[in-house]
Amino acid sequence: KHLQERRQDGAAEGSARQQEMEKSRPLWDNPVQFVFACISYAVGLGNVWRFPYLCQMYGGGGFLIPYFIMLIVEGMPLLYMELAVGQRMRQGSIGAWKIISPYLCGVGVASVVVSFFLSMYYNVINAWAFWYLFHSFQDPLPWATCPLNSNRTGYEEECEKTSSTQYFWYRQTLNISPSLEVSGAVQWEQALCLTLAWLVVYLCILRGTESTGKVVYVTASLPYCVLIIYLIRGLTLHGAVNGLIYMFTPKLEQLSNPKTWISAATQIFFSLGLGFGSLIAFASYNEPSNNCERHAIIVSLINSATSIFASIVTFSIYGFKATFNYESCINKVILLLLNAFDLEEGSLTADNLNEMKDYLMATHPQEYAQLLPQLKNCSLEAELDTAVQGTGLAFIVYSEAIKNMEVSQLYSVLYFVMLLMLGIGSMLGNTAAILTPLTDSKVIATRFPKEVISGVVCFINCIIGLIFTMEAGNYWFDIFNDYAATLSLLLIVLVETIAVCYIYGLRRFEKDLHTMIGRKLNWYWKVMWAFASPLLIISLFIFYLTDYILTGTLQYQAWDGTQGQLVTKDYPGYALAVIGLLVASSTMCIPLGALVTFVRKRLKRERVSTVA
Amino acid sequence: MFAFLLFVSDAQNAFKVRLSIKTALGDNAYAWDANEEYLFKAMVAFTMRRYSTKTTTQISNVLLCNVTDRVSFWFVVTDSSKNTTTVPGSEVEAAIRMNRNRINNAFLLSDKTLQFLKISSTLAPPVEPSTPVWLIVFGVVLCLIVAAIVFLVVAGIQQRKKKNKESTERENLEEKGEVTITIENGIPCETLDLKAGHINGVFSADDERFTSL
């Protein structure tokens, strides 16, 4: 009788499972769409604006050595693991980790929370890209010249103190306030661009993989076309070679600096977008027999190659900009001397400048001494040394270089379209990480259609994103950019690796992969997953914690309009509280999830035992 | 000598002029000689005459001094009716401001390359269309995106209605027993094509209970 009961229960469970599988999971049309989606997600703005900065700071060409070592030791294994988990469990992040162990549902929730924070602030970058793109259809470009002051006798004061490109970014785009405390009003122009950016994202994710799969063909390939055009244009610019030589000369002594290795590890980690749940979401839409090992290697290699490719373009642009500024500086000095001493035009050139300066100092010492404070010492190295990263690089340095090119409108449009493609590609991954768990959960998915869920998520994010369009919005953006994802992701991926290796069991995972891919798992992956990657993540985590603790108060860069430059300020109390909340809300999900599951199981067991 | 005295005593009515001919014209630059100076004096006289009809300034009323290689010099305008006095600087300034364009064109130069050092030029404002260009582009892109979203949403709703109608038709057919899908235990046979249907875990365990022969 006991056997019969078990068989009936088994049949009932079996029929329930079959009914679930009848409503089949949407799939990518072909593996190419999956690879393109991963590339589109991983290759983002960080490849363009963070890697060249790191390359410059940590030893030029020599930085490639720690970068590749970290790619092989950390990047590829962790990427393969996430894709394999997603493909095996065929669920979003919450469901996948629940299958591995019910106590780990907190990991999935933490991933969703971090993705939510990321999508809140990341789309603002797309809004800025739209703003610059729409302003590229003018002649001359609006950031090429300073606007006139009120009585039209000269240029705006703030613009005179700084450059026209910086003025356009800080005043006309952001309208930035002097500090975080001064919130200011919502800028309606930025709010419009943000709304448009969210509408575009909604359009792409509206139909799930059906629409996303088509969009990623464009968002993955278009940036490469633009980068190639820029490579050709960049290498032919006057002075580009200066930049390339200066940046790529290896300074191998930087290899002994521990910060170099940590930056390489961090860059690989965040550049691939691990821990957000997007990769798991993308892989869950794969056929179970997809060869995710090959795809993981391809995606990580393409990601790193794109970083190097983008930095070649960036360094040639740097070289062009530095040479242009250096030559302008020299010309200004020449003009000053010509006017002061009434010398004939053309008598002072860049070549004889130094000798003439000495000659003038000897013949007219008093006038020369009066002029001395205005005579700047122009240096090409000083111009090349200005290392910029982040929005400063993308929107200030590049637009400055573009305004000096011929046919600047065309290059401007191409560049900002490329930024948009990179940004939207990453946004697709972020929203997939949020939406896949929502559409997987039966509670929500049965009641609301996919379009409504996506629409609600986009709407909520758009409303919250209006904070970043206020006058102090850029400061809040920096807070989110620096703190929302960094520590939490390290912890999430660490827990993921330990969970797969030790809780789920490496042997069991190996068997699953064997059934999926059909090949035996290479010993290399096993060693990396079990030992190398967790150790590396733990050391990164310890380093960042000690760094935060040692620096004491956190500071930020505020724009001072009266001086025309950035000044360092301390964060006020409530900003520090927000930072703490950001980090805590995602990391606390992991233990909380385990606790809630434990309590629930306890209650169920008590209920069952009282019934029996 | 006379002119020099004028420059010294009425420094506020004298103006320094600076020309950058080579910068403006490059290879087509002309040399600055006495003829060009004559043209300059003529232009200033013309400017004064245009400014106020009552003055009858002659070319001889405009005095140049201290011409350098830079090509820069000082000039004053004397008043012919009152001897040895110079026209007030404010009048000269206003006159030149009014006719700056004509003076520039006579020398093929611009405000930047023909500088009157005390007279700041009013910079031409940039041409601004009535609606900013960016709003137009924004409007176009916005309309396209919204149209695409509406199209996809409506198509999705129509698709779902069709699917619902199809599934209700299928249910009706099943009730009539006309469907040829073999069903076992309420589960269509195609989905049972897994190992779970063929191998029963309960029985394989029982086999081990018997000792092997």
TrEMBL record, chain A:
Residues 1-10 have a biased composition (Basic and acidic residues). It comes from the Eukaryota. SUPFAM superfamilies: SNF-like. GO terms for molecular function: L-proline transmembrane transporter activity; metal ion binding; proline:sodium symporter activity. Pfam families: SNF (PF00209). Na(+) binds at A42, V43, N47, S271, N303, L422, S426. The keyword Mitochondrion does not apply. InterPro entries: Na/ntran_symport, Neutral_aa_SLC6, SNS_sf. GO terms for biological process: glycine transport; L-proline import across plasma membrane. Residues 1-24 are annotated as: Disordered. The chain crosses the membrane at residues 31-51, 57-80, 100-122, 188-206, 215-241, 261-285, 297-318, 413-435, 456-477, 483-506, 527-546, 574-599. Keywords: Glycoprotein, Membrane, Metal-binding, Sodium, Symport, Transmembrane, Transmembrane helix, Transport. GO terms for cellular component: apical plasma membrane. It is a multi-pass membrane protein. It is found in: Membrane. Belongs to the sodium:neurotransmitter symporter (SNF) (TC 2.A.22) family. This is Transporter. The lineage of its organism: Eukaryota, Metazoa, Chordata, Craniata, Vertebrata.
UniProtKB/TrEMBL annotation, chain B:
The keyword Glycoprotein applies. One of its GO terms (cellular component) is plasma membrane. It comes from the Eukaryota. InterPro entries: Collectrin (IPR042944), Collectrin_dom (IPR031588). It holds the Pfam family Collectrin. Residues 11-213 form the Collectrin-like domain. It is a single-pass type I membrane protein. It is found in: Cell membrane. This is Collectrin-like domain-containing protein. Keywords: Cell membrane, Glycoprotein, Membrane, Phosphoprotein, Signal, Transmembrane, Transmembrane helix. The keyword Transmembrane helix applies. GO terms for biological process: positive regulation of amino acid transport. The chain crosses the membrane at residues 133-157.
